[in-house]
Description:
Blueprint: H1 3-26, H2 41-51, H3 54-72, H4 78-101, H5 107-129, H6 139-163
Helix pairs in contact: 1-2, 1-3, 2-3, 2-4, 2-6, 3-4, 4-5, 5-6
Amino acid sequence: MNKTRRLVLLALFIAIASVLHVVESWIPFPLPVPGIKLGLANIVSLVIIATLGWRDAIYVVVVRVFLASLFGGVFLGPAFAMSLSGAVGSTVVMAYVYQHWRSAFSLIGISILGAVAHNVAQIVVAALIVSSGTLLWYLPYLLLFALPTGWATGMIVVYFLRKAPRLV
């Protein structure tokens, strides 16, 4: 793939992931557990891991979090730190599993692991921000929702890659 095509694809992925990130923050989740999100931007991360590679996925994730935090008015605040840790943690786990254990895990399984990693990273950073481990009690509730949300985003990735196999 030539450099221009790669640059255009990365710009498109950054734009799509940023829009999904912002739009998802507008979606009210009618559950008694605050902070639950669908993880729509992780769809883009896993598509990039499967098509372009982990380096490009990390690049897109970092740029997406910076842009979304600027648009959302939370740049360099606690929400930014939590978002960045969750996004990078999730992408690193998904990339590692995809690269080393692809034969043992489907894209759906990798997506679920990414959702779990996202929640763990965010709770750890939140506990560090407030200097209290008491937030860790919240982790089991988040992990309970990581399974269906990770499954759903994984299904979307599988569907997308089947319908657009010549993307890259």
